[in-house]
Design brief:
The complex is a heterodimer of chains A (160) and B (302). Chain A has 160 residues and is mainly alpha-helical. Chain A is built from 9 helices and no strands. Chain B has 2 domains: 36 residues; 177 residues, Rod shape-determining protein MreC, domain 1 (Thrombin, subunit H). Classes of the chains: A mainly alpha (160), B alpha+beta (302).
Chain lengths: 160, 302
């Protein structure tokens, strides 16, 4: 696949992830909404072509902050750490089967949620902790789904 | 980690190292975060710029809601007739009540004139459409389609047909963000309508309740008491319903009694809200100020 196609796919997937992240859901389901943007940044750091993922993670974080109305930089901190960890892990974990990757990446999503929880605490914005940590569970199952879907879109030999 | 570092190095032969770039941007993020949470006014320009860029995403996310409200428009003739009849009856009842209020208002105005108080009873209001709600379950905030151009200001009170919804916390040129009264960071001065007791209602954080944490141990609060907004503090207009107490707890050995209330406003329903201009320069010492509107408004609540 050409480089331009992959980059286009990247931009499109980011747009879709943002939309899924802020689309209105009933209250009961909303707490279990996966952290789409985080998984997506993770995927492109892990399998992506040579995109400047740190910068992208930072800018995506700013966008998330505006959409969620959090202090600017809060989501960026978490996304930068996820992007860094997954770029580093690609040479170690990349060869393992998908289900083992899914298990191994669980701490990454949890750490992201924990960091958001800490930052909220530091900004004296205390509320129910379960609302921060519940989305981690669907996020774990999101990884194999997103990997398979995006790999299928990129076609055979798409991961370069 | 060290092994992966060596293995990964030949894959990234460009520019400054990944660790360096990450650390740099992490520091930048933290700096931004620190500055923004200290003083939200500092970065409001950058924020509105990013929001302008992200508008297409917000439109996209609003599409399903638009579709569902469009299908809502298709109704049967029967249900429309029934609704029409019901509304007519209601309107008649309201009309009768309104007549009484008109008389009361006239009387009130006369008495006020006697007292030579110049404050106006009618507050200036503006209807704003709710264009987005915060999907972060941690924050109860909404975005309105009215902004600086319409004269919206930070701290402005927001009400709906049933009670106080919240207050404006950020103003953009043509949009504004408001914090709802159930947000854990929100507190509103309230008055218990039955006794006139002044206290503070804070957001419970789970989106459904308000908590009244600072009640004296011997305060006269009962389940079912109506809370109305208090003009003390000068931020909210006085006399709008805020909530209804559903639970009162006395913990033995504690100095304070706790109560919980359901908000009166329908925070999760409807797409319109009223922005209220309250009188900023209101002297808080005026005794008649927040005593007179409550009976009128609370009487209107079913």
């Amino acid at each position: 696949m050409s480089n331009a196609y992959t980059r286009g796919l990247f931009a499109l997937s980011l747009l879709v992830a943002f939309t899924l992240q802020i689309i209105a859901l009933p209250d009961a389901v909303s707490a279990m909404r996966p952290m789409w943007v985080v998984v997506l940044i993770g995927y492109w750091s892990f399998y992506g072509p040579n995109l400047p993922m740190t910068l992208i993670a930072f800018l995506t974080g700013l966008a998330c902050d505006v959409l969620y109305n959090t202090p600017l930089g809060q989501h960026g901190l978490g996304l930068l750490l996820v992007a860094y960890a997954l770029t580093r892990l690609r040479s170690n974990l990349g060869l393992f089967p998908l289900w083992q990757q899914t298990l191994a990446l669980m701490p990454a999503w949890f750490l992201y949620a924990l960091l958001q929880f800490w930052l909220d605490g530091m900004a004296r914005h205390a509320a129910e902790a379960s609302l921060r940590f519940l989305p981690v569970i669907p996020t774990i199952f999101c990884w194999p789904l997103l990997c398979s879907a995006l790999d299928a879109l990129r076609g055979p030999g798409g991961r370069v | 980690m060290a092994r992966s570092h060596r293995a990964a190095r030949p894959l990234f032969p460009r520019g400054p190292g990944l660790g360096f770039r990450t650390a740099l941007l992490l520091m930048l993020s933290f700096g931004l975060w620190f500055a923004d949470q200290r003083d939200p006014r500092l970065l409001v320009q950058a924020r509105s710029g990013i929001q302008w860029v992200l508008q297409p995403v917000q439109w996209l996310a609003a599409v399903p809601q638009g579709v569902s409200s469009a299908t809502e428009g298709v109704r049967s003739h029967q249900s429309l007739l029934a609704e029409n009849r019901q509304l007519r009856e209601e309107q008649l009842k309201q009309q009768a009540r309104l007549l009484k209020f008109a008389a009361l208002e006239a009387e009130n105005r006369r008495i006020r004139q006697l007292l030579a108080s110049s404050s106006a009873l009618e507050e200036r209001v503006l209807i704003a459409e709710i264009v987005a709600t915060s999907q972060d379950p941690y924050r109860h905030q909404i975005t309105l389609n009215k902004g600086e151009k319409d004269g919206v200001y930070i701290g402005q009170a927001l009400v709906d047909a049933y009670g106080v919804m919240g207050q404006v916390i950020r103003v953009y040129p043509s949009a504004a963000t408001a914090m709802l009264i159930t947000d854990p960071g929100h507190g509103i001065p309230v008055e218990i309508n039955r006794t006139g007791l002044q206290t503070i209602a804070r957001g419970g954080g789970d989106g459904r309740v308000l908590s009244l944490p600072f009640l004296p141990g011997n305060a006269d609060v009962k389940v079912g008491d109506l809370l109305v907004s208090s003009a003390l503090g000068g931020r909210f207009p006085g006399g709008y319903p805020v909530g209804e107490v559903f639970d009162v707890r006395r913990t033995t050995g504690e100095h304070f009694m706790q109560a919980s209330a359901y908000p009166a406003a329908r925070l999760d329903q409807g797409r319109q809200a009223l922005l209220v201009w309250s009188d900023h320069s209101l002297p808080t010492t005026e005794p008649g100020e927040e005593a007179s509107p409550p009976p009128a408004v609370s009487g209107a609540k079913p």
